[in-house]
Specification:
- By secondary structure, this protein is an all-alpha fold.
- The structure holds protoporphyrin IX containing FE.
- Protoporphyrin IX containing FE binds next to α3, α4, α6 and α9.
- The site of protoporphyrin IX containing FE has 23 residues, from α3, α4, α6 and α9.
């Protein structure tokens, strides 16, 4: 049988590893920027790297629940919040690099660019969808909202991931294989969710209960 429990010290160490590893793309980017090794177009390189990191962390966050249910490894749930916050962090960094270094902090310049390049509107929708997820990620907010409402709100992760994938697909120039691979993963994850929803035990109608009780 699969080992489902984990010692507290092991769990703390695993959480530490996830936190450290999540910061690796940002650290490498910072290191390479410091050493002027971001290539001919450093701003674009930074935008692409942070965008890809945001999408990968979004997908990893959404993989946690199905993986936990299929494998029985319940402790992986403890990584979900960290992975989700990293997704949000990279998406914010992605936008901020674009807004500051590409658009020189110009709000009108950013808006007019959005009108020209529609994929920016789609990406912004994804980023906006992640804001309530990040704001309600604390234990206090989970308690305040209640599990049911919190879970309903957190379905926004699918909106964010969907927008992220479409945004990626729309801005790719020729080879669409990679965005399509992300889309396939997202469809599988969504399909799994729907399957779980349809197979959930249905509430027994009250009339039947009454008949059985007699
Ligand atoms: C959920 C939020 C977002 C995700 C997951 C995301 C993801 C991505 C990905 C995966 C790429 C392509 C990376 C590559 O080719 O290696 C990309 C490119 C890009 N994104 Fe985003 N993005 C998001 C939001 C935004 C926002 C809000 C903006 C700005 C308003 C933005 C601006 C850009 C730009 C300018 C590019 C580069 C396009 C190019 O060089 O052709 N993104 N993004």
């Amino acid at each position: 049988m699969a080992q489902t429990a984990m010692k507290d010290s092991d769990l703390r160490f695993a959480k530490f590893l996830v936190r450290v590893n999540g910061a690796v793309p940002a650290m490498l980017l910072g290191w390479d920027a410091w050493h002027h090794r971001l290539g001919a177009n450093p701003v674009n390189f930074a935008i692409l790297t942070t965008g890809m990191s945001a999408l990968v962390f979004l997908m990893l966050t959404m993989l946690v629940t199905p993986l936990r249910k299929i494998s029985g490894l319940n402790w992986i749930i403890y990584f979900r919040r960290t992975l989700g916050l990293y997704a949000f962090f990279y998406a914010c960094l992605h936008f901020l690099i674009f807004f500051s270094l590409d658009r020189s902090f110009s709000v009108s310049g950013t808006l007019s660019e959005m009108v020209k390049r529609k994929y920016l509107i789609v990406g912004s929708t994804g980023l906006l969808a992640m804001v309530p997820l990040a704001v309600t990620s604390t234990n206090g907010m989970i308690k305040r909202l209640g599990g049911r409402r919190w879970r309903a709100l957190h379905r926004l992760a699918y909106v964010a991931a969907g927008a992220g994938v479409i945004h990626y697909y729309m801005q790719v120039k020729a080879d669409v294989r990679q965005p399509l691979a992300f889309a396939a993963v997202l469809v599988i994850l969504l399909g799994y969710r729907l399957m779980v929803f349809w197979r959930r035990p249905k509430p027994v109608p009250t009339a039947t209960v009454a008949v059985k009780e007699r």
